[in-house]
Specification:
By secondary structure, this protein is an all-alpha fold. It has 3 helices and no strands. The chain has one domain.
Amino acid sequence: MRRDLWLFLFVLGAAFFSWPILSIVKDGLVLYLFIVWLVFIGLIRIAAIFSDKEESGS
């Protein structure tokens, strides 16, 4: 489960920071990058907490 979650986050990050998506939002690029970056960091934090709980058996 953990490996699938990390792989999903990697693919999601690669998709949201890829050139086709960035070219769509070129007018509000700075705001888009800031918001996506914050959301992505939050998702990584949640995945890390979830992985730690799974390892400890709680």
